[in-house]
Automatic annotation (TrEMBL):
Species of origin: Ruegeria meonggei
Protein name: Glucans biosynthesis glucosyltransferase H
Protein's pathway: Glycan metabolism; osmoregulated periplasmic glucan (OPG) biosynthesis
Membrane topology: Multi-pass membrane protein
Entry's family note: Belongs to the glycosyltransferase 2 family. OpgH subfamily.
Keyword NAD recorded: no
Molecular functions per Gene Ontology: hexosyltransferase activity
UniProt KW keywords: Cell inner membrane, Cell membrane, Glycosyltransferase, Membrane, Transferase, Transmembrane, Transmembrane helix
CC per GO annotation: plasma membrane
Source organism superkingdom: Bacteria
Keyword Membrane listed: yes
Glycosyltransferase 2-like domain segment(s): 217-441
InterPro entries in the record: Glyco_trans_2-like, Glycosyltr_2/OpgH_subfam, Nucleotide-diphossugar_trans
Encoding gene, per UniProt annotation: opgH
Transmembrane segments: 40-59, 71-99, 392-411, 442-463, 483-506, 556-579
Amino acid sequence: MTRDLHIMPPEAPLAMPAQDFSAGFRDAQVPDAKRPSAGFWRALAFSPAMAATLGLLWVMSDWFGAEGINLVEAILLALISFNFFWISFTVCTVLLGMVSLSRQEKPIRETRPEPLRVALLMPVYNEVPWNVLGNARSMLEDLQARGGQHHYAMFILSDTRDPEIAAQEQASVEALRTTLDPGLELYYRRREQNTDRKVGNIADWVSRWGADWDAMLVLDADSLMTGRAILRLTDSLARDSGAGLIQSYPQLIGAQSVFARMQQFANGVYGIAFAEGLARWCGQEGNYWGHNAIIRTSAFANCAGLPKLRAFNGQEKLIMSHDFVEAGLMRRAGWGVRFLPRIRGSYEETPPTLIDHALRDRRWCQGNLQHLKLLGSAGFRSVSRFHMFHGAVGYLMSPLWFALLVMWALIGQGEDASVLHYFSPDNPLFPQWPEMSETRHVLIILVMYAMLLAPKVLGVLALPLSGVRYADFGGGSKFLTSFLAEVILSILYAPILMVQQMIAVFRTTLGVQKGWSPQARDGGSYSLRTLILCHTLETVSGIALSAGILSGLVSVWLAPIAISLALAIPLSALSGVSAGAARRMVGMKEDFHEPAITRSARRHRNELKRVIEGKGIMTPAE
C-alpha cells in the first residue's frame, strides 16, 4: 500500500464564503478608481449583427407574407433569424479584431509593478504524472531563467483516485524534487476525497494556504506557459489594482491526429482576430475559461465561493462549469475581469479524435446549460449574463440547426415533390412554402453559407496584422493547402458535431448524464463497434437525406450535410489518424517553428517517464 505524500508549506487560512445569488455583493477591497468603458466597441460588435438579422428577417417575411404568416412559417423564420444573429455576431467580432490589430497605439510608459507572490496551481485527476510534472518543471525553470522580482511556487493539487496512478504521481514528484534547483518551489497535496471536484480542489487550497499568496495562476493538467507569458500576466495584475482576474489566450499545441491538427490550425489562424475582437467588446467584463489565468487570491476568496444549486428534485448540485460563474461573481463585486489575447506563450492541448471531442463536449454541455438557471441572479453585469447565455446557446444552437435542417428537408423542391405540400384550395391544411429555386432564394442560401465561411477568410486576412507570416507555415502554397484542407474537413465534421451536441443537450435535459470524468488526452483509434454506436444517428440521418435528394424530395442544397452525416463512421475513424499523408494534410506553424517551451516539456516528460519505469535517472537542470 502506497503511503500518502504531502509536501506543502505551513497553512495560511483564508476565508472563502459561499456567495448568495439572490443578493448583490460589493467587495470593500475594490479600489474606487474609474474603470475604462467598452461601450463604443460593444456597439460596433452588436449593432451590425442585429441590423443584418433584422434585414434578413424582413426579406424572408416578404416571401411568406403573400398569404399571411402561419405558425409553422413563424417558427421557421425564428429559427433562421436566431441562427443568423450568432453567425453575424461572430463575423462582427472578427472584423472588430481586425480593426483593433490594425490600430497603431502609442506605447504607454509603465511603472515598475509591485512584487507579487504567485502560486501556480495545477489541479490533476487521474492524469499521466510524467506529462504533468514535465510541464511543471519546464515552467519553473523558464521562470527562473527569466528572473524578475515576483516570487513563484508550483502546487500540484491531486484529486487522483486511481491507486496505481497515485503511486506513479507521488514517485514522479519525489524524483523531480531531487533534481530541481533549490531555489525552485514544488509542492504536492493529494486529497483523501475529491469533494466538489476541481471547484473543491481550488477552494481547499484557497481556504488552507491562500492567505500567503497575492495571486494564483490556475492551470489545467495539460497547460504549458512560457516564463515570459507568466511574467506578463503577473505584471499586468500588479499594475492594475482593480483587476481581479486576467485571462490569457491559450493556443493549442501538441496536435498529431487529423482532427487535432485541424483544431490547432483553426485556433492559431482564425482565433487571433476573434480573440482580439472579443477582448475589445468585453472590456472589464471579460470571461474566465478555467485555466491559464491569473487571479487575485483575496478577491477570489471574498467574491467567488460557489454555493450548490438546488435541482427540481430538491437535491443540491455542484455548479459544473464554474469558471463563467466565478468571473461573473468577481465582476459583480466590482473587480475587473480582463482578457489579454496579445500575451503569447499560453498553451493547452486539444482532444485528438472526434469521439474524444464529443465526450468532452458532453461534460461541458451539462455545465453550460446549468448557467441558464443563473441568468436571473442578483447583481450580475449584463455582459456577464451574456457570457453565460452565449455559452448555453453554443449548445442549444445544435438542436436548433437540426430542427432547421429537418424543416428545410421537408420543404422539398416543389409542390408535387415536397414532403410537405403547399397551401392550396385542394390542400388547405399545410403551409404554402416559397419556391426555393428562385434566384433571390438561392442568393440568400449562398449568403448563409458565405457568412459561415467569412470568419475563416477574415481570420486569414488578419493574420499578418498580428505579426504572424504565412511563410511561418512552411510557405504560402503550404499555408493555402492547409487552409483549404481545414475548410473541407470542418465542413465535413460540422454536421456530425451538430448531431453530437444535440445528443448532449437531450441527455442533459433528460438527466441521463453522468458527472465529470477525466479527459482522454491521448485518445487513439476506436473499434468499429464503438464508431457505429457513437454515430448511428448521424449515419441514418445522412442516408435518409441522401435518399431524399436523389428522389427529388429534398433540396440539393443539403447535399454537403447529407454526405457528411452518411460518412460519419469513416470520417470519425479518419479523425484519429496520426501518420502519413493524412497527418500532413493540415500543416501548422509549430511544424516549422516549435516553441522552445514545448521542446523542453517533451524532454522533461520523456526523462521522467524513463525514471518512473526504471529505465533512466534524473538529470539536474542545465
